Amino acid sequence: xxxxxxxxxxxxxxxxxxxxxxxxxxxxxxxxxxxxxxxxxxxxxxxxxxxxxxxxxxxxxxxxxxxxxxxxxxxxxxxxxxxxxxxxxxxxxxxxxxxxxxxxxxxxxxxxxxxxxxxxxxxxxxxxxxxxxxxxxxxxxxx
Amino acid sequence: xxxxxxxxxxxxxxxxxxxxxxxxxxxxxxxxxxxxxxxxxxxxxxxxxxxxxxxxxxxxxxxxxxxxxxxxxxxxxxxxxxxxxxxxxxxxxxxxxxxxxxxxxxxxxxxxxxxxxxxxxxxxxxxxxxxxxxxxxxxxxxxxxxxxxxxxxxxxxxxxxxxxxxxxxxxxxxxxxxxxxxxxxxxxxxxxxxxxxxxxxxxxxxxxxxxxxxxxxxxxxxxxxxxxxxxxxxxxxxxxxxxxxxxxxxxxxxxxxxxxxxxxxxxxxxxxxxxxxxxxxxxxxxxxxxxxxxxxxxxxxxxxxxxxxxxxxxxxxxxxxxxxxxxxxxxxxxxxxxxxxxxxxxxxxxxxxxxxxxxxxxxxxxxxxxxxxxxxxxxxxxxxxxxxxxxxxxxxxxxxxxxxxxxxxxxxxxxxxxxxxxxxxxxxxxxxxxxxxxxxxxxxxxxxxxxxxxxxxxxxxxxxxxxxxxxxxxxxxxxxxxxxxxxxxxxxxxxxxxxxxxxxxxxxxxxxxxxxxxxxxxxxx
Lengths: 143, 525
Hints:
- The complex is a heterodimer.
- By secondary structure, chain A is of the alpha/beta class.
- Chain A has helices spanning 3-7, 12-20, 34-45, 75-84, 130-141, and strands at residues 27-30, 63-67, 90-94, 121-123.
- Chain B is an alpha+beta fold.
- Chain B is 42% helix and 15% strand.
- The interface between A and B is medium-sized, with 27 and 32 residues.
């Protein structure tokens, strides 16, 4: 999302949509790493924040959760998923290895993910604790 | 050729170092020798192929290729090695062992070497990262050209495997005619990263290779390093390692049972199984303050002793899981609908051996092969347990074997906890490192300087929850390794999957995939 898009004035219809989706996240989890299993299970457990655990079509989702380290082959698929999100587009990265090279890296890895996608929030941890994940969602909700 | 076969009249003439015999031959003898080994010496399965780059040594023949063959009856393996040049065209062994295609494709992509074959059943798009002179070049994937005939793209619909791999099918009505697997989405270059690490860093890294089998890989890495350095373990450390190995086996079996029941829309059973997974995870958290990636091993023992109050909680959790298994037997195995639903996907023992798949898949088709019985480590020979064996090799057999194995590993843990030996958890030589952990600077220095690894090659393998996993280590008389290779049965099982589903209904292919227990993190390292 560019700065101009963020600053633009919302119409009334946008405000109604905003109000309707205020309390609810519809996530799509991509990135085939070890945090993925953990996050899928966490989404079912969370009670504090409304996050839907059912599978929705890509056009209705508004939150993209990216787990762990991304390599060159899966990057175009993630960019395509980001393009197909409907309405608002929030991006959350999960896991320490998406930011830091824990044990060195080779050139098959994507080192700077933020060059390709604007990341809204990052949840650290290997794997992240439940409290951290909930806090991340709460921070995201303030926008 | 004749000089070689005179020594190879029978296996008794050969010298085995840790059940592996290293056989150096000339590159012209390969084709004859491989057939001879399979037919006369009973080397039925090809476990692994890997190449070592010797660019830094400056020898005239740059590459060294290793074929690891195994005789399952005697549990003896032969590693056939020969050197070759960059311009030499390797001959494919896929006409003897069909699973060789996967390994050969990896080698041709990682090193840019040519093989004399045409058709791939799966694709892998990576670049040549394993070369030590860091030449980067794009290799065109020939097999991707003829993709037009595949009219259905089916990634396994289960959400745990949503973006791991892509399966493309060509259909005639509902029947599958051909299949193509697109993989490489998870390739992280673990083996390349390991060449830059010292021993302590390597052990910590090993628990992050495969998240669901963190303990298996951690123990395997530590065990094979101990073989290289010839270190002995105290008894209490062996018992603790055994308990945690079996806990991981329970956890991974519960996860695969959960996946099968999710696939068949038994949501109650899925939630029950996932709660068991969480409970085992919380047990490991209590022991070592780590969720999944617990690097609890160290050379010469384990880092922490069992904390106070851990044993009673462990017993109560195991009781819960045992009751859950009894529930499953009542609700699922007793019902007719469940049993008829899972009577699909038969895999014969012959095709299992042809693709050298081990673990529950092999046992479900009626072959009694378990490394815990064949080559027992630690206290497995003193413990009472049974290996369940199936009859027809259907999905139902694989499901029942996993259920029974959970029960057997509970039996093992209970026996070990009853007779837990007392004493130290770490051998005397290695205590110095643990004491350094209080001082950060000294510890950091010690980790970075590392331990000298002798110039030697070892292969070590253990029985994981889904077949045999193994580790090749090649030392070069310095702190760091010259080559590390991870071998897993999942890689062969994926190749088996692509051949088994042909001629079947495409609805069943997802059930077959989940029952094989393929973990894509093991396949792409």
